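User: Just a sanity check before I run the rest of the batch. Below are the structure tokens for the first item. I only need the designed sequence back.
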């Protein structure tokens, strides 16, 4: 059953407080606010990496609130940091006032970024962060032409959907930008599964005769696109093309920062890129809403006039971010992401070797994925992928979906995941693979 099916069911006429939460959800939220599962999950408590639902069932969380709960749940030192801030009575002030935690966090991120003369602007989400980066790039260059990658996702606003390469996540036909899509190495700019023989040459041909681009925006590992890692050599060639046009290089690190990729603190370090702008959000504050932009001062300062953010960089969220970064570094969670990720990826590859309907097990650190396909044709099978997610949930494992065709299982536990939890998740994934293995063809 899909979210659309749920919306199309007759509404319950019982008093509001007596109706199931699922029915109340569809009554007051838009149809496009989708939920996973035929019977959506209602988390009511959590500890470690385990989420307990409204029926008292425990679930091992291997999607982390879409890669946001970096540390998992119930972390004592994280909670103590929030309590100290709450004890001051100040949860919010806005950027019209000096905020100690905001300045300390900005100093730390500017230093970590490796960007010369870096400044930081805080917002509430990855969408807002990418909006701000694109605004600054257009002001800095005097152009509204943006290069983006196929199968990319950069947010849900008019500007960020305009530069997102996943057709299903680009709902409006209107755009404030002239957008040129470059192949991610897996999908062509026209959307088929056969990328150009030389994607960089194809991009240069597309740019010929057009207005100079303001920006090239890339995800070092594509998130909603199915945890696909574009080839390093290709991204480096794109970066040189952007530099030749004096375009700003924006690295969207909303899902890849803070050591999640294992081998690198920032995802762009996997490709040896030197961004002018880094955007971030999700995992920085372990679930509290916080995003931002790190950029060269001349780029961010090119936004004319004044601006504020009412909630961006508020004291509680910045305190949460500082505590999260401390915990990641103090417990060497980047190393855990690498070793745990390698172990889980090896298990996914073994499963794919045993089950022809599992294909292309891949990933970086704790951003792992495997595609679900029809084993006879090799075509994407999104219905089977949704069935796998349902079966995993029934067995006590929460994972995500994604990919251009919606047939990719996305696996991204908190950075604190343990070896025993990896083994338990592997057991459940293997059981789901066996359960949904197509019957052998008969002669």
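Assistant: Here's the designed sequence for the first item:
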């Amino acid at each position: 059953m899909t979210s659309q099916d749920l919306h199309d069911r007759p509404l319950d006429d019982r008093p509001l407080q007596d109706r199931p939460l699922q029915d109340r959800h569809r009554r007051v939220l838009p149809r496009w606010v989708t939920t996973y599962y035929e019977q959506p999950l209602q988390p009511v408590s959590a500890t470690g990496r385990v989420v307990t639902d409204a029926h008292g069932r425990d679930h091992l969380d291997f999607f982390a609130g879409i890669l946001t709960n970096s540390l998992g749940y119930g972390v004592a030192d994280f909670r103590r940091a929030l309590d100290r801030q709450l004890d001051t009575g100040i949860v919010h002030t806005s950027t019209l006032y000096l905020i100690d935690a905001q300045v300390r966090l900005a100093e730390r991120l500017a230093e970590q970024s490796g960007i010369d003369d870096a400044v930081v602007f805080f917002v509430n989400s990855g969408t807002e962060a990418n909006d701000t980066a694109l605004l600054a790039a257009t002001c800095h260059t005097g152009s509204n032409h943006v290069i983006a990658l196929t199968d990319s996702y950069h947010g849900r606003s008019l500007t960020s959907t305009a530069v997102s390469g996943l057709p299903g996540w680009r709902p409006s036909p209107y755009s404030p930008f002239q957008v040129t899509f470059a192949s991610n190495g897996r999908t062509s700019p026209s959307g088929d599964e056969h990328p150009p023989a030389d994607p960089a040459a194809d991009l240069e041909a597309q740019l010929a005769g057009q207005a100079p681009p303001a920006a090239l925006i890339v995800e070092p590992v594509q998130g909603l696109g199915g945890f696909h890692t574009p080839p390093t050599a290709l991204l480096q060639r794109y970066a040189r093309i952007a530099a030749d046009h004096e375009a700003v290089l924006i690295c969207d690190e909303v899902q890849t920062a803070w050591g999640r990729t294992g081998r690198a603190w920032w995802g762009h370090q996997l490709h040896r890129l030197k961004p002018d702008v880094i955007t971030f959000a999700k995992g920085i504050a372990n679930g509290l809403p916080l995003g931002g932009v790190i950029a060269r001062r001349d780029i961010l300062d090119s936004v004319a006039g004044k601006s504020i953010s009412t909630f961006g960089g508020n004291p509680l969220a910045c305190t949460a971010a500082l505590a999260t970064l401390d915990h990641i570094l103090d417990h060497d969670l980047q190393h855990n992401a690498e070793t745990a990720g390698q172990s889980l990826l090896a298990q996914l590859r073994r499963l794919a070797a045993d089950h022809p309907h599992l294909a292309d097990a891949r990933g970086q650190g704790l951003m792992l994925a495997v595609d679900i396909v029809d084993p006879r044709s090799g075509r994407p099978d999104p219905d089977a992928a949704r069935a796998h997610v349902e079966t995993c949930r029934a067995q006590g494992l929460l994972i995500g979906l994604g990919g251009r065709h919606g047939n990719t299982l996305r696996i991204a536990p908190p950075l604190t995941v343990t070896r025993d939890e990896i083994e338990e998740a592997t057991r459940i994934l293997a059981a789901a693979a066996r359960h949904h293995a197509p019957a052998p063809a008969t002669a």
